[in-house]
Write a structure and sequence with these properties.
By secondary structure, the chain is mainly beta. About 10% of the residues lie in helices and about 45% in strands. The strands form five sheets. The chain has an 18-stranded antiparallel barrel. Strands 2-1-3-4-5 form a five-stranded antiparallel beta sheet, sandwiched between helices. The radius of gyration is 27 Å and the shape is globular. It starts with a strand and ends with a strand.
Length: about 625
C-alpha cells in the first residue's frame, strides 16, 4: 500500500497560522504505483492550494538527518512531533492508495502531529494507480474544507484552556490508516473524529462490482465462419477483508459474448491472502502483478499470462504465486515462486488446410505454412500442452526496487516456462500415390530466463521513463530453427502534463519509443514473433484531454519503424452519473505492408461502444 505523508497547515477565516508542508514518507508495498510521481503530484497540489505552504524535500531530509530519524521512519509517532516542531507545521497529512473494486482509492487524512488525533479525511476514486494534477487539486481542496478552522493564538491572559479531549493520551499512530478510517473511506462517508478511535470489533469487509456492456461490428465481413463482431455483457465482483496485519482479497469475472463464445469467462482473476509486518509482507494465491515504469508498453511485465486472442484488447490473467517482500528503508526486495506453469491465450488456427492455409474463426489468425508448391498435404495440428506443475517446471524470480537520487529504479530476474509456445514442423513424404506430404505441427513450452530493468524520474510535470527486458531462450547459439533466438526489447520516453487550466481542464501527452533487437541470430517475423513483439521498432503515443471531471478525449496510436504499419485509436468518455461511464472509440488499422502487426489486418478496424457502472 503506497503511503505518502505530508505536513500541512490550514488557513482559517480568523487570523491565520502559517505553517509549511513537508513530504515525510512514501511507501509502496504493491508495486503498482510510482512513488515519486504520486509524491510530486500531491506536493504540487499542496503548493497550488491557498490553504497550504510547503517545505522542500531537501529541507525535510536535512531535518530528518539532524534529528537522526531512520530512513522511511519520518511518519512514525516517535519522530513526527520532532519534525513538526523543527519545521513548524501543525498538521500532518497522510495519503494512502488501495484497491477499490476494480479500481483504486486514494485517501487523504489530516492528523495532529503531536497527539496523533485525526482532524479530517477526504478520498477520490481512480481507474489506474496514477494521480492526475486536477484530481489531486480537488482532493486537497476537499480536505482543506473539512479541516477545523485554526486561528492565531489570543493573548495568554485571555486564552481558554484547551478541551481535555484534545490533550487526552493517545496510542501511537499506525503507519497505515486505522480500520475505522478505512471503513468510513470505503463506505463513502466523510470521516472526522476528535476522540480516540473505538476498538474494531470485526474485520472490515469491502465489496466492489463493475457491470459493463460492449458492442461492435466489423464493417467488412470476411465470409466463412469468421467472427463478425462482439456483443458482451460482463460482471466483475471483488471482495476484500482485512484485519490487523492480514488481509484477503478475491475478484471474479463473469462474461458472456453472444457473438464470439470463445471469449466467455467465468473464472477467478485474483484470490489471495496477505500477511504484513513492519518490514515484510507475504502474499500467496492467484495474483495480478505489474512490472515496469512505461505507460504505453511494458516488456518487463512477464509474470502474468495474457489473453492475446484480440491483440488490440489484451487481457492480463492472474498467476498462482507466492511473493515475499522485505523493506529496507528506501529499498524493496521481492522474491517470487510460481509453482504452476501457464500459457498465453493466442489466436492460433484451429486446423490447417491441404494447401497450408490456416483455418480459424478468429480474424487475427491468418497465414499459411510454407509448403512445397504442387503438392497437397495432410496436416496434423497438435496444440501446445501446458507443462505440468512439478519441480522440474518450477518458476521463480527476484526483484529489487529502490529510490536513488529522486529516481525510482528496479532490477529483476525471472525464470519461467515460456508463456508463448514453440512450434515444430515435421514434413514427411507419403510413399503411396498420389504423392502428398504428411505434416505434423507440434507445440511445446520451453524454459526462458528474463532479466528486467526500469527507471523513472520526475522533473516537475515531466516524467521520464526507461524500461528493458532481455529474453534468454534455450537456443543460446541460434542453431535451432524452431526455437526463438534470444532477444531484448527496450522502451524509452516520458509524459508531460499541462494544467489544470480553465479551472478543471488538463492535457496529458505520452510519447515512447520501442525497439527490439536480437541478442543472437535474428528476430522471427512469423505470427508468433509478431505476438511476442507487436512493435519491433516504432513510436507509441497517447494524448488525453480532460474537459472537466466528466468528459475525456483521447487519441492513442502506434507507427512501426517500417513506416507503413500502424494504428490510431481515438476515443471519447463521458461520465453520465456518479459511477456510470459511456465510451465510444474507433480502432483504425492502416498501412499497405504485407507483413506486420496492423497493416495485414486492416479489415479488423472497428467502431466500439460500451458502458460500465462501478459500485
Amino acid at each position: 500500500m503506497p503511503l505518502l505523508v505530508l505536513a500541512a497547515t490550514t488557513v482559517a477565516a480568523q487570523p491565520q497560522v502559517s505553517s509549511r508542508v513537508g513530504l515525510v514518507r512514501v511507501k509502496d508495498a504493491t508495486g503498482l504505483a510510482s512513488e515519486s510521481a504520486l509524491r510530486d503530484t500531491l506536493q504540487r497540489a499542496l503548493e497550488r492550494s491557498g490553504q497550504f505552504q510547503t517545505v522542500g524535500k531537501r529541507q525535510l531530509a536535512q531535518a530528518a538527518r539532524a534529528l537522526r530519524v531512520p530512513a522511511g521512519r519520518q511518519a512514525d509517532p516517535e519522530h513526527l512531533p520532532q519534525l513538526a516542531e523543527r519545521l513548524s507545521f501543525d498538521t500532518a497529512v497522510t495519503a494512502s492508495l488501495t484497491r477499490r473494486g476494480v479500481g483504486f482509492r486514494l485517501v487523504l487524512r489530516a492528523v495532529d502531529p503531536g497527539s496523533g488525533q485525526q482532524l479530517a479525511l477526504a478520498f477520490t476514486d481512480l481507474g489506474k494507480p496514477r494521480l492526475r494534477a486536477e484530481a489531486a487539486d480537488r482532493l486537497v481542496q476537499s480536505l482543506s474544507r473539512k479541516l477545523p478552522p485554526r486561528s492565531a493564538a489570543p493573548p495568554a491572559d485571555t486564552a481558554p484552556e484547551p478541551p481535555p479531549v484534545a490533550e487526552a493520551p493517545r496510542a501511537p499512530e499506525s503507519s497505515v490508516p486505522s480500520d475505522d478510517a478505512w471503513a468510513a473511506a470505503m463506505s463513502g462517508v466523510d470521516f472526522a473524529q476528535d476522540a480516540p478511535e473505538p476498538p474494531q470489533t470485526q474485520p472490515p469487509v469491502e465489496l466492489g462490482a463493475r457491470v459493463a456492456v460492449e458492442h461492435f461490428s466489423y464493417p467488412k465481413h470476411l465470409g466463412d465462419d469468421r467472427v463478425s463482431g462482439r456483443d458482451v455483457a460482463e460482471l466483475a465482483v471483488q471482495v476484500r477483508g482485512s484485519t490487523q496485519g492480514a488481509r484477503a482479497q478475491g475478484s471474479f469475472l463473469m462474461r458472456r459474448d453472444f457473438a464470439d463464445p470463445s471469449r466467455d469467462r467465468f473464472d477467478v482473476e485474483e484470490a489471495f491472502f496477505e500477511l504484513k509486518g513492519s518490514r515484510w509482507a507475504f502474499r500467496a494465491g492467484r495474483v495480478l502483478t505489474s512490472w515496469g515504469a512505461a505507460s504505453l508498453y511494458n516488456p518487463s511485465d512477464v509474470l502474468d499470462p495474457v489473453d492475446l486472442r484480440d491483440p488490440l484488447a489484451p487481457e492480463k490473467r492472474g498467476a498462482w504465486m507466492a511473493r515475499l517482500s522485505a523493506f529496507f528503508g528506501p529499498v524493496l526486495l521481492e522474491g517470487y515462486f510460481l509453482p504452476v506453469p501457464e500459457q498465453n491465450l493466442l489466436p492460433l488456427p484451429e486446423a490447417i488446410g491441404p494447401d497450408g492455409a490456416f483455418v480459424a474463426r478468429s480474424r487475427w489468425s491468418r497465414g499459411r505454412l510454407p509448403l512445397p508448391e504442387g503438392l497437397s498435404a495432410r496436416v496434423t495440428l497438435v496444440p501446445p500442452r501446458v507443462p505440468s506443475a512439478r519441480l522440474a517446471h518450477a518458476q521463480g524470480g527476484v526483484r529489487l526496487v529502490a529510490s536513488v537520487g529522486g529516481a525510482d529504479l528496479s532490477l529483476g530476474f525471472v525464470t519461467l516456462m515460456d508463456r508463448m509456445p514453440t512450434l515444430r514442423v515435421d514434413i514427411l513424404p507419403t510413399p503411396a500415390p498420389p504423392p502428398e506430404l504428411d505434416v505434423t505441427v507440434t507445440g511445446s513450452h520451453e524454459r526462458v530466463h528474463v532479466a528486467t530493468f526500469d527507471a523513472e524520474y520526475s522533473l516537475g510535470k515531466l516524467r521520464l521513463v526507461a524500461e528493458a527486458a532481455a529474453f534468454l531462450t534455450r537456443d543460446r547459439r541460434a542453431q535451432n530453427p524452431f526455437v526463438e533466438d534470444p532477444y531484448a526489447i527496450g522502451v524509452i520516453g516520458g509524459d508531460y502534463q499541462v494544467g489544470p487550466f480553465l479551472q478543471d481542464h488538463s492535457l496529458h501527452v505520452f510519447l515512447e519509443w520501442v525497439q527490439a533487437q536480437a541478442l543472437v541470430g535474428r528476430l522471427s517475423d512469423d505470427a508468433l514473433g509478431r505476438l511476442r513483439r507487436p512493435v519491433p521498432g516504432g513510436l507509441l503515443t497517447r494524448v488525453a484531454y480532460e474537459a472537466g471531471p466528466d468528459l475525456r478525449f483521447e487519441v492513442a496510436g502506434t507507427l512501426s519503424l517500417r513506416g507503413d504499419d500502424g494504428f490510431v485509436n481515438p476515443r471519447v468518455e463521458y461520465v453520465l452519473f456518479d459511477r456510470v461511464k459511456a465510451r465510444l472509440e474507433y480502432l483504425w488499422l492502416f498501412g499497405s505492408a504485407k507483413e506486420g502487426s496492423f497493416a495485414p489486418f486492416r479489415d479488423n478496424s472497428r467502431l466500439e461502444a460500451s458502458m460500465e457502472a462501478s459500485f
